[in-house]
Amino acid sequence: MYTVRKRIEISASHSLKLSYESKCENLHGHNWVIVVWCRAKQLNDDGMVVDFTHIKQKIQEQLDHRNLNEVLSFNTTAENMARWICNQIPACFKVEVQESESNIAIYEED
Prior knowledge:
alpha+beta; Tetrahydropterin Synthase, Chain A; 3 helices; elongated
């Protein structure tokens, strides 16, 4: 089994829609760190699980320097973002989304 890991940094804003009162309901920004894990039993014709550049392009081009609420159609929690990112990348099985030094969400397929 081959596994690759790609770390991406983006700057983006968002506001959360919550069932309780929170300052996170206001528009605010983060310097997000996103880590994507992909795996495959066999390498593709180019000798890769997935091209690192393709992972970066898929995520950075859609999310970097954007208001995530204008780009994504769901409540932009770190947990929801991790699942969405995982679904964007072929062979992805795990995504870590860090919105601050102490706040990290991980989505991992079963």
